[in-house]
Amino acid sequence: MADASTTDLVSATGSSEGGFLLSTLQSMVNWCRKNSVWPLPLGLSCCGIEFMATAASRYDMSRFGMEVARFSPRQADLMLVAGTLTYKMAQVMTRLYDQMSEPKWVIAMGACASSGGMFRSYPVVQGIDEFVPVDFYIPGCPPRPDAVLNCLIQLQKKIERDRSYRLEVEAPADAPIARGGLVRVEGRGEMAAPALAQSDQRWVEGTRPKAGVERPPTPVRER
Amino acid sequence: MSSIAYKSEAPATVRPAVAYELSSRGAQWCDYAACGADAKYRATPAALLPASAWVDAFRALRDQHGFDFLVDHSAVDYPDRSPRFTVVALVESTATHERLLLKARVAEGEAFPSLAGLYRSADWAERETYDMFGIPFAGHPDLTRIYMPQDYEGWPLRKDFPMEGHLRFRD
Description:
heterodimer; A: alpha/beta; 4-stranded parallel β-sheet; two-stranded antiparallel sheet; 8 strands; 30% helix; globular; disordered N terminus; B: 3 helices; 22% strand
């Protein structure tokens, strides 16, 4: 329990037996979630091989509680798109994403998933974020397992920062954030407006953009 | 690049019975030597057939001359030519390992006879040709796109299709 996220877990009795812990629900939930991220791997091309290496014993993803690769979207927390996504496959990917239950995260692994990679060509999606919201992009073609692990650790940190259980208070129209000055936040002291804005961009449960929602038509450019 | 020259007599490598079969149906034989093709491309005799003789020629080849395997079926887009497309089919005899390349021309939007009733392998191959070139095959059991999504617009292997496709750029 020397983990950074659990420093606010306080043992009230000082003993490991029969005691209880004082914490916030938020940090307990985050602690559980970040150590049991079950990935849904979409091994679409060579990145899938690197993902297998990440999961295998040498790099051993299970150190982070992520070894339970689920091939059912209903049991997965993380969609790891590893490889080249074609427009035909994008329909499948979007459906899988929609079937995952919240909270869910998406990683675009490698150049192809992030941007289409070297396939600037008619069947290939130029980045999976055309269809689903992406939390992390891993560069590389394909990325080494180290890079995947690093990304997964970053994902754990992101989950730690999650504040979806906090109460939402609607800000008054003349809130200081709109003026760009320093903002006083309860328990956090003064902080600059952009930082607050950034922290407020963290999604709140249920407000995250979902794939399949009607979006304005993307412009098509003839080249 | 010179276009392929044709002549009416078949190359010597073609069996006389096959040569007669195709020539009597109006086949013109590719004259590889006249168009300066490299020797390694001359191994397979090729003939240009009238589209009207397409299915009957293949039926005769399959039933009477042992060409029982349709190896490949595709098309080529020549935007400057009229008719625009050349449909190409490669058949092989699994007994003698002879191969024959047959071609026929078809205009844009014009239906072309399907070989799916003769060769099982023509089914998917013609769907691919349809998917990539937009050549409708008459008599095909299930003429739908095979690679691209069903709602895809355009025919990617046509020369006037943008190579990068209709990319969707984000602002």
